[in-house]
Amino acid sequence: MLITIVTERELRELVQLDAGALEVVAAGFTDLVSRDVALPPIMHINVADQGGEVDVKSAYVAGAPRFAIKVAGGFWENPRRFGIPSSSSQMIVLSASTGYCEAILLDNGYLTDVRTALAGALVARHLAPPQLDAVGQIGAGAQGRFQMRALQLVRPYRRVLVYDRDEARLEAYVAEMPAVLGVEVVRASGPEEVVRTCDLVTTSTPSQQPYIRAEWLRPGQHLTAMGADAPHKQELFPDVLARADVIVCDRRSQCAQLGELHHALEAGLISESAVIPELGEVIAGRHPGRQSPEQITVADLTGVGVQDTAISLLAYDRAASRGLGVQFDPRG
Ligand SMILES: NC(=O)c1ccc[n+]([C@@H]2O[C@H](COP(=O)([O-])OP(=O)(O)OC[C@H]3O[C@@H](n4cnc5c(N)ncnc54)[C@H](O)[C@@H]3O)[C@@H](O)[C@H]2O)c1
User: Which domains does the chain show, CATH number per domain?
Assistant: First the structure.
């Protein structure tokens, strides 16, 4: 059987932050709560001496013709040491009927960036206040860019307040993003100014120390924390979750191990029996999401294999229909 190899350049052409891709990721989340899905635990390889990590994620939705396995690296010193992005990855698409590899998507982290930003947009669609003036972005890296772009699919906003502890990255963001987003982009003095000013805040840093404090939050605000996707990472002090009226997880069991929920449970500030819906339940209308303008809402995103399978199969189908990619006979 031939294997199709699709390059990053082709994948960037095939899959973008658009309404079609948003609905594909939404369907992945609703599948997770309404269909039979094989979702193995994430395999995490800690390359600690190099400041790196590799995660392997996958999901198979029963009845689907294919599924994907993602191998994703996060090497946080890459930008400083080598001048290359911290995140990398490739997706392997397997046939659900034979188990054979049908395609390798050499996306270099691009598809992960897209599916992650679309999860942030889906959260905003269901939890953010209806009108946004200033929105906040903490972490001026890859996700800091993708999240603010994807948010525009579901909510217009007037300006972005951004903070990053790395001065050069902050400067680069403020220089580049006004033209990309078409709104004013202003640098903030720190996380406190971002949280105190903005209606919606996204945090996307690999921080290992919490830096968002509960006392900065105000009624009506929404916060999406997506940087913590491993037990040693944390962006929110645990009482932020205790202060929230609604907490939504992409996958509750995963957030309890890897996300902000993990730290709040450990601190005893959230009980094991607390009602915490999953994003798929909110999208499917089984949980109402935001119910009043005064509620404080918080989303904890750790990244789920169904997102990877959903975005990979979208890329695979589009590549097949447009005849993109190079076909390769693995037998040589
Ligand atoms: N939840 C998910 O599905 C998902 C998906 C992709 C990435 N991630 C995680 O999101 C995080 C960011 O990913 P990225 O690709 O944008 O990385 P990146 O390296 O491109 O950007 C991270 C930025 O955060 C800044 N930063 C680090 N610590 C900070 C702090 N304490 N305060 C302010 N700024 C700080 C860095 O200077 C950098 O600019 C990582 O932890 C990554 O593992 C999660």
Answer: 3-111+306-328 (3.30.1780.10), 125-303 (3.40.50.720)
